[in-house]
């Protein structure tokens, strides 16, 4: 853990380090805003709530391995059924590599809902709705370039959006060499070929009060090297919103050895127009994305596998 309030100009100070006797791969970490000094982490077959004041897990939830490896965690408050407003329960949503979504009531804690995507694609990102008290929704992004909108109470899929063929980035062909016939026989010819994975999903911090959803759009980025806009109110599935040729990239950061250099890029002050052309914003897969700034001036940051961070305005 790093202390972000008492850091030097060029580094953070390490506050604590957690090391458990359980030797297992940690697949996801999440920190609930309603619980101070606590955070969640998911391993191969369990979810643990850790209290940083006592240096150990205080709650452990076992997860059936048949559901897949936990890939993403989300935490919030939700009213179940016709419960009174003051009895909202804290929920934990866990998504897995096999497309299953698990909802836990953390008051007990108990598994209260479980469902699976029809295509069983790996879920890479999950985000809870910002108005859970009125619209209990969940957004998920999958390893097949799809975005889903779910009802948390019923598990119903409200919307399913996919990258259109005209705006899709072609997958690179990977040749399989030196494999004998018996090895090929182990591969099912009917296995689905998943599209580019979505590695980042962000929601706008400012909501449209007239939208039936909360919010009405999301931004995603991932293996196809594009930043995509998804609207839940339009019939068009997605389109790219950032490109080096059209939009206002201000500068970018690049690692050269152990030195991080900022390079000022030429900026086109004209606002980017909506286009059906595909404009990858990075030469390699985008690993993460975040929105920062305020309502007057928002900045979009994207990072890439080649060590470059671009800042978009």
TrEMBL record:
Keywords: Nucleotide-binding, WD repeat
Gene Ontology terms for molecular function: nucleotide binding; protein serine/threonine kinase activity
CC annotations in GO: late endosome; nucleus-vacuole junction; phosphatidylinositol 3-kinase complex, class III, type I; phosphatidylinositol 3-kinase complex, class III, type II
Signal peptide extent: none
Presence of the UniProt keyword Hydrolase in the record: no
GO terms, biological process: late endosome to vacuole transport; macroautophagy; protein targeting to vacuole
WD repeats: 279-313
Keyword check for Chloroplast: no
Stated name of the protein: Uncharacterized protein
Native species: Blastocystis hominis
């Amino acid at each position: 853990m790093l202390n972000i309030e008492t850091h030097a100009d060029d580094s953070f100070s390490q506050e604590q380090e957690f090391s458990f006797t359980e030797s297992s791969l940690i697949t996801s970490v999440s920190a609930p805003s309603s619980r101070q000094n606590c955070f969640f982490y998911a391993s191969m077959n369990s979810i643990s709530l850790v209290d940083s004041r006592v240096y150990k897990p205080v709650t452990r939830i076992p997860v059936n391995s048949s559901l897949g490896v936990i890939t993403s965690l989300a935490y919030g408050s939700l009213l179940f059924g016709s419960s009174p407003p003051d009895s909202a329960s804290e929920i934990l949503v866990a998504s897995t590599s096999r497309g299953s979504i698990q909802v836990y009531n953390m008051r007990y804690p108990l598994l209260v809902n479980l469902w699976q995507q029809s295509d069983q694609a790996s879920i890479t990102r999950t985000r809870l709705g910002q108005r859970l008290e009125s619209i209990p929704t969940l957004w998920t992004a999958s390893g097949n370039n799809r975005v889903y909108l779910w009802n948390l109470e019923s598990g119903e899929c409200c919307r399913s959006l996919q990258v259109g063929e005209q705006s899709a980035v072609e997958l690179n062909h990977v040749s399989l060499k030196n494999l004998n016939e018996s090895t090929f026989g182990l591969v099912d010819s009917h296995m689905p070929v998943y599209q580019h994975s979505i590695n980042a999903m962000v929601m706008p911090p400012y909501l449209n009060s007239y939208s039936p959803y909360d919010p009405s759009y999301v931004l995603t980025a991932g293996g196809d090297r594009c930043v995509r806009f998804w609207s839940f109110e339009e019939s068009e599935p997605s389109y790219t919103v950032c490109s080096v040729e059209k939009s206002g990239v201000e500068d970018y950061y690049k690692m050269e050895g152990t030195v991080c250099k900022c390079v000022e890029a030429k900026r086109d002050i004209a606002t980017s127009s909506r286009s059906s052309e595909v404009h990858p914003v990075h030469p390699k897969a985008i690993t993460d994305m975040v929105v920062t700034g305020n309502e007057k001036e928002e900045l979009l940051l994207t990072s890439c596998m080649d060590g470059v961070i671009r800042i978009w305005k």
